[in-house]
Amino acid sequence: MEYSKGDILEATDRSIDAGMHYIIYLEQTNEERFIGAMLTGLAIDKNELMPNEFFHTHSETGKRYKIPSKQSHLVKAKLIKLESWGPFRIVGSLTEKGLRFVLDLIDHLHSETWEEYLKRTN
Prior knowledge:
Blueprint: E1 7-10, E2 22-28, E3 33-40, E4 47-50, E5 72-82, E6 89-93, H1 96-106, E7 111-112, H2 114-121
Parallel strand pairs: 5-7
Antiparallel strand pairs: 1-2, 1-6, 2-3, 3-5, 4-5
């Protein structure tokens, strides 16, 4: 499946070492990986609140999206995500304002794995 920048994905493999959290799709790097941002419900200092106005509530076909369903926070990292966690399904989409907000916060960062992010921030 082809995704657009700002689509919110849910992985089939939702384990803690894979796609447990929702992923904002940013760009494809190769057949095995893509770059994404992570959404979490965890409200801590290093995460940014994403107001509901940053999310579309319905798809272009009128189907109600799963996200937003509660307060979502952006983890400030450009994360390497693996295609092997899929297949993925689209469960939400950012508005233009929401995508700009995400890119303003993380576009300047280097891509990293979750483990590298944890080392950098802890």
